[in-house]
Amino acid sequence: MEFVENLLQAVDIARQAPSSHNCQPWKLVHIEDRRMRAQLLPAHAWAEHGQLLLLGIDRKRTLRALPSLALEMQLSCGMFLGLLSAAFDALGFHCNWHWLEMLEAQAPAAMPFLQSLEQGHGCRGLVLLALQPQRVPDATAFAGLQDSVRQRRTHRAPFAEGSCSDVVLAQLLERHWPEQLTGDQLHLRVERSPALIARAADLVRQFAALDFSSYRAWKETYRYLRFDPRKPAEDGFYLHSLMGPMSPLRTRIMQCVLAPEVMQVLRIVRVPHNMAAQLAALVEDSAQLLLCSLPSDDLASTVMVQAGARLMEVWLNAQRLGLALHPLSVMLQHDRARGQLQRLAGGNGRIVFFARLGAIRQRHGECLRRPLAAIIETHGETV
Ligand SMILES: Cc1cc2nc3c(=O)[nH]c(=O)nc-3n(C[C@H](O)[C@H](O)[C@H](O)COP(=O)(O)O)c2cc1C
């Protein structure tokens, strides 16, 4: 099989990764140009039949309304990288990750070449993925992965009754992917204490309105809401996947009510606060919360991307166990909210991901994704 066919299959899996607002901020450059490859990586770093991919954050797709979204872009790309690597592994490739932050220190001469690549392809590079065909493809592993990523969805409805046993929680956190990919920095904690969950829900009640009432942040979110299910889209989310099924008339009304300018006016009658209260009720009703933190506030992009890959591994474990996640990023996007949540969690690290966790009650089939051709670019041979 031609490498390009493997690449398409792997990206078809990776593009199912979750991302903030479903903005899918990733770009993948297949570096075919031998001279460019030689400038970026020393010859010993890879073999003759190897292939090289650059994963970066697509500058045009980057969310920017709040500073913390920069971290979310890295986490989202890490999730993409996790799935991409797992897919290549099932296809029989050996993967090697060259983190660009480290390359900067190790091979400064490569930097101008990297920069020209980034400029030419409109992205901020994160990692070079070197691939080497090594084994026969494992069709069963590939089909299993494909099935899990297609089934996995963000679960915004109430969860099914019941909490997870210790055995299930241990399986949830199991490691299957190499540490070179997922790092060892992300600390995951599943909170089951009803008292703590109730206090976290109070914080959500207190702070989640910030999401809806900040004009700048909400304007960016609103751009990703899709109101007409008949209109094809490749990113963002349909309103009914956020708020449940609704009639066309109600959808039209919500389109007006949620418009950023209208939302500003509705602050007077505390509509954002009512929406925050609904979210808090969902949190209160959850049997578990997932809190993920990193040791320090110095969040290098490598650490963030690795954390994203680790989260993806856990999210897939969850899917296979019949569990689902619902991230609540608003609590991390504002310093005061995050500070209070961190104090409640009692840790001294920085929380980078916070979600409800519970048993899947209903499956949502819908998922908007960009076409493969929009994700992959080729940096070809120059003559
Ligand atoms: C870093 C990150 C933050 C997210 N934050 C939220 C959030 O605050 N609220 C929410 O409802 N979904 C959140 N999501 C879920 C995305 O909206 C979801 O992944 C995307 O719409 C694609 O849908 P899917 O996960 O069902 O495939 C987040 C996802 C990621 C990766």
Summarize the structure.
Pfam families: Nitroreductase (PF00881). The protein is 49% helix and 17% strand. The protein has 383 residues and is of the alpha+beta class.
Structure description:
By secondary structure, the protein is α+β, with helices and mostly antiparallel strands. It has a domain at 3-149 and 368-379: NADH Oxidase. Helix content is 49%, strand content 17%. The chain is built from 19 helices and 11 strands. The chain has helices at residues 3-14, 34-40, 69-90, 100-106, 111-121, 139-151, 166-172, 179-182, 194-207, 209-213, 215-222, 239-243, 248-258, 260-266, 271-284, 301-320, 330-333, 335-345, 372-375; strands spanning 26-31, 51-58, 93-99, 123-133, 187-191, 225-226, 237-238, 288-294, 323-327, 350-359, 376-379. Strands 3-4-2-1-11 form a 5-stranded mixed β-sheet, sandwiched between helices. The chain has a 4-stranded antiparallel β-sheet with strand order 5-8-10-9, with helices on both faces. A two-stranded parallel ribbon has the order 6-7. Helix 3 (69-90) crosses helix 16 (301-320) and helix 11 (215-222) packs across helix 14 (260-266). The longest helix has 22 residues, at 69-90. The structure holds flavin mononucleotide.
